[in-house]
Design a protein that fits this description.
The complex is a heterodimer of chains A (110) and B (115). Chain A has 110 residues and is an all-beta fold. Chain A is built from no helices and eleven strands. Classes of the chains: A mainly beta (110), B mainly beta (115).
Chain lengths: 110, 115
Amino acid sequence: KQEVTQIPAALSVPEGENLVLNCSFTDSAIYNLQWFRQDPGKGLTSLLLIQSSQREQTSGRLNASLDKSSGRSTLYIAASQPGDSATYLCAVRGDTPLVFGKGTRLSVIA
Amino acid sequence: GAGVSQSPSNKVTEKGKDVELRCDPISGHTALYWYRQRLGQGLEFLIYFQGNSAPDKSGLPSDRFSAERTGESVSTLTIQRTQQEDSAVYLCASSLDVGGNTEAFFGQGTRLTVV
């Protein structure tokens, strides 16, 4: 059974700092990995999708990497801003539907 | 439509009543998912539809929960004889699932409160 773990559960950083969020998964037989953002009381917004054949994807200040063989992904956020404050979720897609981690709650302090 | 649409956005119901939650996926998306998110918790998989294949119902928590999807369009999640423990946000997502493009897009959710 696929299990997804995100570390840390919560993170607080001052504005302008670069930061890394971690995601690990137990079954490396995945099709892709997707990072989402969830604001309080809202649905999920897709940030980046990495196919299993890819090593990384970039969108603006966000960079996600994937090491499928070791079951790890990282989301790098450059020059963090207060507007980045949210919960960040990773999810993996394999033969089973999307399996989610419990998320990292990020607070960026102005 | 432009995105995944869910209705109602909020629903308050009395314990023991039945409720229906609706999801309109992005047009052309063959895959549709339902998830449940209890307050302060992660996303809990409920059910997955993919085209004309039999749905994956492995996440439904009890026989009070059921879902239908007509073709590749609207889906309805039904909860019978609601209990207070059913209070949660119910999220729907869809994806194209063609040619390896499986990026999932979520609706804003339905917040269900059972009183």
